[in-house]
Amino acid sequence: MNPIAGLPEPLLLGLHAFGELAKEPDKCLTTKHLADIIGTSEPYLSKILQRLCRCGLIKSVRGPGGGYKLNCVPSETPLYPIFEVLGGPFKASGCKLEGCRGKKCFIGEMMDELSRAFFRYLASRSVAEFASYYANGTEVSIEISVVTPSLGQRHPNFGNVSQKKI
Fold first, then answer.
1. Longest Cα pair distance anywhere in the chain, in angstroms?
2. How far apart are CA 98 and CA 95, in angstroms?
3. pTM flag (> 0.85)
């Protein structure tokens, strides 16, 4: 899947649930509570949370006051594995047009490089940073520099392109 093209719903729901759990890592939250906050059904969210449990990122706590809670060290856990568990495996996949198959395609190579930049960003960010973004509405900025491959330098017109914050 190419993450630049759009993220699947289970990944988005799982990230929101994970974000809620990461805000208060020692607190248990029920599936119902998480589903109400996110605006989805309990059974659907439960299946997504089970994926996070199976890989050990969160754990299920039984009994009164039970639910789900974080099972990782937020400052030591990168975001990339969470994306992989919920929506992966991710891979750069080039251009999907029939006429481009087997050929070099600028659009496909550009999308692949954007995907790789996104993966590097996820690998460089921790759950603790994600929790801060999620809880406080901290602005997220992914900077991508444009390099002219033949010259090995930044594109001279890059400064004229408006940069949007994601």
1. 64
2. 9
3. no
